[in-house]
Design brief:
Number of strands: 0
Number of helices: 2
Largest sheet: none
Shape: elongated
Keywords: Membrane, Transmembrane, Transmembrane helix
Distance between the termini: 16 Å
Helix content: over 70%
Strand content: under 5%
Order of helices and strands: HH
Length: about 50
């Protein structure tokens, strides 16, 4: 479970590197928050439906 929580940050970091936006803080933080928020929402909905 703790390892899965890190995935949004890894994905956001990788996407920012690919897009070349690593030097710009705003798009990186925005994409990281959107990705992590969507991931957490999907993760919670998956666990709530599985139980």
């Amino acid at each position: 479970m703790p390892k899965l929580v890190w995935w949004p940050f890894v994905v956001a970091y990788a996407s920012s590197v690919v897009l070349g936006n690593l030097a710009v803080d705003t798009p990186y933080v925005f994409s990281m928050s959107v990705i992590s928020d969507g991931y957490i929402h999907a993760l919670l909905s998956r666990y709530s439906t599985s139980q």
